[in-house]
Specification:
The structure is a single chain. The protein is α+β, with helices and mostly antiparallel strands and 159 residues long. It has a single domain, classed as Beta-Lactamase (2-Layer Sandwich). The protein has a six-stranded antiparallel sheet with strand order 3-2-1-6-5-4, sandwiched between helices. Strand 2 and strand 3 form a beta hairpin. The radius of gyration is 14 Å and the shape is globular. The structure holds methionine sulfoxide. The site of methionine sulfoxide (SME) has 14 residues, from helix 3 and strand 6.
Length: 159
């Protein structure tokens, strides 16, 4: 059985530990739903000041919500809408320090104040996005963005 370990040390050390734990948690399993679900649970409980964390999968037309932690969310997001659509369309991580300043932001959870969306690209194909919301303005520092991208990479490697 997997047991999450409490994170300690500098922000970088905490991220290294969380990414290692994620790798261990997903090791030996390739099911994309199972791995998205377990990775969401691990990261949501390990990170502070996060109110929504999870996956949207690309169905060939739009993004459809997948496993997540947090309040119920918008089910479908067109690629021309929201931070998630922008990250999927451009294939670039989007860091939004103030969601109210992002044109077209979709307020699934009214508590969200800042957000990071990492696109999930495997063998050149768009799989979906990894979306993390915080109730705190400008919650995500560069080391957090790098850490969230590393978690997304662990997920992609597991598929
Ligand atoms: N805020 C996102 C929508 C998804 S929720 O945050 C869970 C967006 O603007 O795309």
């Amino acid at each position: 059985m997997f047991t999450a370990t409490a994170l300690s040390g500098s922000p970088e050390e905490r991220w290294t530990s969380l990414v290692e734990q994620a790798r261990g948690l997903l090791h030996g399993e390739r099911d994309r739903i199972a791995n998205a679900a377990n990775l969401s649970a691990l990261a949501y409980h390990a990170l502070s000041q996060v109110n929504w964390l999870g996956f949207y999968f690309f169905d060939g037309k739009e993004l459809v919500v997948g496993p997540f932690q947090g309040h119920p969310a918008c089910v479908r997001i067109a690629l021309d809408r929201g931070v998630c659509g922008a990250a999927a369309r451009t294939r670039q991580t989007h860091v939004v320090p103030d969601v109210e300043a992002f044109p077209g932001h979709i307020p699934c959870d009214s508590a969200s104040r800042s957000e990071v969306v990492v696109p999930l690209i495997k063998d050149g194909a768009l799989i979906g996005v990894f979306d993390i919301d915080s109730p705190v303005l400008a919650r995500f520092q560069p080391e957090d963005v790098a850490g969230l991208e590393a978690l997304a990479a662990v997920y992609l490697e597991s598929l």
